[in-house]
Amino acid sequence: MVSVKLLTTLLTSTAAVAATATATAPDFKTLNVTVIGAHNNKSTLECWAIEPGFTESSQAGTAGSEVLNLGPVSGNASFSVLPAKFDGGRHNAPAMQWVIFLSGLAHITLPHSGKEAWIRGGKEGAILALDTAKVSGDGHITKYPSDEVTVAMQVPLQGNKVPGHQILHGGACKGEEVSL
Ligand SMILES: *[C@@H]1O[C@H](CO)[C@@H](O)[C@H](O)[C@H]1NC(C)=O
Ligand SMILES: *[C@@H]1O[C@H](CO)[C@@H](O)[C@H](O)[C@H]1NC(C)=O
Ligand SMILES: *[C@@H]1O[C@H](CO)[C@@H](O)[C@H](O)[C@H]1NC(C)=O
């Protein structure tokens, strides 16, 4: 029974993929990401829409698909593997950087606000961490409460230049705002 349902789902999604491959109109306009920023020496959470949004790629290998420029990066990128239930404690972003969670679950809280963010690893796992010690006295707190290892890539921004964006609202992005 279950496998019949699964097969139907697979066939439906295969058909959807095939349809997408020939379609030209993008399904979504931009990428919305949760941002750990800072204001008045205190870390904040905001939801940003990255600008410019998706365009149709003309590069070999991805031609015709949707692509979004994340802006210039530099320095040493790193790949972290955090054990299940790891407590990252209170800290500042070591550099202004993209943090791309590939698995697991990160729970971000703030010392001076009740706002929080839950970031699940996967295709919707990219955030910007910008609260370096220079701009935030007390940083933020990150815990990894799941039973799975959390894998994260950290990619520093070039020249501390944040990507083009529009601030959608204060607080973390909501599930439907990041859904790809
Ligand atoms: C990158 O890492 C190397 C080796 O640890 C270090 O010498 C270098 O200064 C680092 N570069 C930056 C931009 O942090
Ligand atoms: C920022 O906050 C830290 C920790 O609360 C404090 O020690 C520091 O003096 C503050 N810096 C400014 C410029 O207010
Ligand atoms: C990002 O947010 C905008 C504004 O709320 C919304 O129109 C758009 O669909 C969102 N993008 C994604 C990928 O969900």
Account of the 3D structure:
It is built from two helices and 13 strands; from the N terminus they run H-E-E-E-E-E-E-E-E-E-E-E-E-E-H. The longest helix is centred in the N-terminal third of the chain and has 21 residues, at 2-22. It has a single domain (4-174), classed as Jelly Rolls (Sandwich). With 180 residues, it is mainly beta. The site of one 2-acetamido-2-deoxy-beta-D-glucopyranose has 3 residues, from loops.
Please sum up the structure shown.
It is globular, with a radius of gyration of 18 Å. It is built from 2 helices and 13 strands.
Provide the fold topology.
Blueprint lengths: L1 H21 L9 E8 L2 E9 L4 E2 L9 E2 L10 E5 L3 E6 L5 E5 L3 E6 L2 E8 L5 E4 L10 E5 L5 E7 L8 E6 L4 H4 L2
Parallel strand pairs: 1-10
Antiparallel strand pairs: 1-2, 2-13, 3-4, 5-12, 6-11, 7-10, 7-12, 8-9, 8-11
One 2-acetamido-2-deoxy-beta-D-glucopyranose (NAG) binds next to loops.
